[in-house]
């Protein structure tokens, strides 16, 4: 960064949220500097499951009940369009991103889950969404898996290569005039003289009229209390060797993404080169060896017994952020300093769509642009003990999932 650099907007974090905010802010006419602590694509935005799923964890009627008719309807409409935001952005900028849009299947492993999907289908169908319930035979044919009692198909969803997407977002943002700095985390942020002044670990400095902190699960102490308001989880994933022709034809023959209905769910998709990629929750600490992915490999052969013995070529993981209420949070602890976090497994669509709204808010200053109310940062009590608590909860949920039929 050049000495004395001053911009309209500083974006801290170069994942989906930060890059989308930067790109859309440039399109709104703002000058933008983006600072990434590591390398673009090294965090969960480049290392996630590649599923582009619209909606939130809660169904429309729950959101209307919680937020009221006006704000609830705004949130529902926003959530319904998050997948569109991704695919439209890719097309508009002719991004080189392997992708498909055949939909997402939520596969039910119990009658209780099937009833919940029936209710979800009723609510989204009433809103004209392209969704459908699947019977046991249909879900078996579409997934190639055994053991599911049925499922729910959301045709609005799709899949992307997440690393290609985050790299293309960075390319387009840079070509549109965003100044991008990598491998240099912001170490201090203070407001003085009507501007926000940021200093990086290397000693570089930038002044900005407004700041968006888009660090999500990688939040540190830059915004007081933000890290303590989130539960970071590790998403572990594996990818097989390219499947032999007979398995390639039988597993996900129509290209949908899938998540199951378990408490500790697994999710999977086919890659463009014919591999099966599957992910799920992993240990809270950093992995030490290939054995730390063994629970995913066991899940893979449970869902697809025919994959027993198929070589695993790749193993990776990323960190994701969950909020206690399972909703994304937007905060503005001081005027001109905005942060948002909490993907809840919908990060690709949610963060890219939310970045567009944050960019407009930075440019226009109208809170009605935002799909959620700005709320105070609320640190989680006993947050320092979260790893023990989360590990215990995951073990308990795995036990319950194993007992269910």
From TrEMBL:
Cross-referenced InterPro entries: FAD-dep_OxRdtase, FAD/NAD-bd_sf
PANTHER family: FAD DEPENDENT OXIDOREDUCTASE DOMAIN-CONTAINING PROTEIN (PTHR13847:SF281), SARCOSINE DEHYDROGENASE-RELATED (PTHR13847)
Example GO molecular function: oxidoreductase activity
Organism: Aquibium oceanicum
Pfam families xref list: DAO (PF01266)
GO cellular component: cytoplasm
Keyword terms: Oxidoreductase
Domain FAD dependent oxidoreductase: 8-360
Protein's UniProt name: FAD-dependent oxidoreductase
Keyword set includes Oxidoreductase: yes
């Amino acid at each position: 960064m050049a000495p004395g650099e001053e911009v309209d907007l500083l974006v801290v974090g170069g994942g989906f949220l930060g890059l989308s905010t930067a790109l859309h802010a440039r399109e709104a006419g703002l000058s933008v500097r983006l600072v990434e602590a590591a390398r673009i694509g090294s965090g969960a935005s480049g290392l996630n499951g590649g599923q582009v799923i619209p909606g939130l964890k809660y169904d429309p009627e729950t959101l209307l009940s919680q937020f009221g008719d006006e704000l609830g309807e705004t949130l529902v409409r926003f959530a319904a369009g998050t997948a569109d935001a991704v695919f439209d952005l890719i097309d508009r900028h002719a991004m080189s991103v392997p992708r498909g849009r055949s939909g997402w299947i939520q596969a039910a492993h119990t009658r209780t889950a099937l009833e919940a999907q029936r209710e979800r289908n009723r609510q989204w169908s009433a809103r004209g969404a392209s969704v459908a319930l699947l019977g046991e035979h249909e879900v078996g044919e579409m997934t190639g898996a055994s053991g599911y009692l049925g499922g729910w198909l959301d045709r609005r969803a799709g899949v992307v290569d997440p690393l290609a997407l985050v790299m293309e977002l960075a390319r387009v943002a840079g070509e549109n005039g965003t100044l991008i700095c990598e491998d240099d985390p912001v170490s201090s942020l203070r407001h003085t003289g009507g501007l926000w002044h940021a200093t990086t670990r290397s000693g570089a400095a930038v002044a900005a009229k407004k700041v968006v902190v888009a660090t999500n699960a990688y939040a540190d102490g830059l915004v007081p209390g933000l890290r303590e308001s989130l539960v970071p989880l590790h998403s572990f994933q594996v990818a097989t060797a390219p499947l032999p022709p007979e398995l390639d034809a039988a597993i996900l023959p129509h290209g949908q993404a899938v998540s199951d209905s378990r408490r500790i769910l697994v999710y999977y998709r086919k890659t463009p080169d014919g591999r099966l990629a599957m992910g799920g929750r992993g240990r809270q600490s950093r992995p030490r060896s290939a054995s730390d992915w063994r629970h995913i490999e066991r899940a893979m052969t449970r869902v697809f017994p025919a994959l027993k013995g198929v070589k695993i070529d790749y193993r990776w993981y990323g960190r994701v952020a969950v909020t206690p209420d399972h909703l994304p949070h937007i905060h503005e602890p001081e005027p001109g300093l905005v942060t948002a976090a909490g993907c809840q497994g919908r990060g690709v669509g949610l963060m890219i769509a939310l970045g567009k709204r944050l960019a407009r808010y930075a440019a226009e200053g109208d809170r009605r642009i935002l799909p959620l109310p700005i709320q105070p940062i609320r640190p989680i009590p006993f947050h320092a003990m979260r790893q023990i608590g989360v590990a215990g909860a995951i073990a308990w949920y795995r036990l319950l999932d194993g007992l269910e039929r």
